[in-house]
Amino acid sequence: MSITGIIVATCIVAGTGLIIGLLLGFAGKAFEVEVDEKEIAIRECLPGNNCGGCGYAGCDALAKAIANGEAPAGACPVGGPSVAGEIAKIVGGTVEMTKNVAFVKCSGTCEKAGDRFEYYGNLDCNQAALSTGGGPKSCAYGCMGFGSCVKVCEFDAIKVVDGIAVVDKEKCVACGKCVKACPKNLIELVPYEQKTFVACNSNDFGKDVKAVCQAGCIGCKICEKNCEFDAIKVENNLAHVDYSKCTNCGKCKEKCPVKVIM
After folding, report:
1. What residue ranges define each of the domains in the chain, with the CATH number in brackets?
2. pTM beyond cutoff 0.85
3. Residue 35's CB: how many other CB atoms inside 10 A?
4. 111 C-beta neighbours (distance < 10 Å), count
5. SS3 241
6. 3-state class of 190 per DSSP?
7. Is residue 1 over pLDDT 60?
8. Quick one: residue 97, left, alpha or beta (phi over 0 = left, psi -120 to 50 = alpha)?
9. What is the rounded average pLDDT of the residues 152-165?
């Protein structure tokens, strides 16, 4: 090939590269996605568990929602008050966030509440709940202990002990996955500082409760009558604590004849 041909080929390649570069530069400007610096800063504060406990599809989605004013600074249950405070500095203002933990409303251990029949199906609460009478446990409202809640917990905060699920409040981040996993609706999120709970979920009359569990609420209303703060009420045969009124004085716990108040 002649020198002239080489020079021409080089110019063509260089010219083509220049044109492509200019086109790419133009396209980059034309289709550039604007970066929200606030969103990036918020995302860096979030823990990155992508657990969905906030109600959004992961930390990226939550960061965007907070940056757009669609979610509060304290929306991340895993991050807790410390992360909420950092995010509040970014978006402006202050935030008050109460730390919550999961609590299992059942005290029917293997010793206190037996089974009506032996279950041979999949060791899963949702599957067992589809069997006769809502599961093998004598109390149709109680924890069956097959650990569906344990399987969904990413923080090793819940275990089955003596036939019922028990929460380690120091590990729990209140993501809410165990709450959704329980077919008996036995798990609720409660304030971390709360010390008084009703460990029962049965709406049966006292006589029927005692027939299947030694530790179930019998709806006697002794707790309600002895509470000075109107913080505990019996509704549908079951005592309920109003955590916003409860002072954890322990009087209801002391007076409860079946010791179902913890």
Report:
1. 37-91 (1.10.15.40), 99-193 (3.30.70.20), 195-262 (3.30.70.20)
2. no
3. 8
4. 10
5. strand
6. strand
7. no
8. beta
9. 94
Indicate if the pLDDT at residue 101 is higher than 80.
Answer: yes
Residue 24: both structure tokens together: 């790419």
Determine the 3-state secondary structure of 96 from DSSP: coil
Rounded distance between C-alpha atoms, residue 38 and residue 255, angstroms: 53
The answer to whether the beta carbons of residues 238 and 173 sit under 8 Å apart is no
Q: What is the pLDDT of residues 174-233, one digit of tens each?
A: 989 999 999 999 999 999 999 999 999 999 999 999 999 999 999 999 999 999 999 999
CB 231 within 8 A of CB 249: no
Alpha helices in 104-247 (DSSP H): 125-128, 148-152, 177-181, 206-212, 222-226
User: Radius of gyration over alpha carbons of the chain, in Å?
Assistant: 29
Pairing of strands 232-235, 187-191: unpaired
Tell me the mean pLDDT in the region 106-126: 91
Side chain identity, residue 161 = V
User: Phi/psi of residue 25, each to 5°?
Assistant: -65, -40
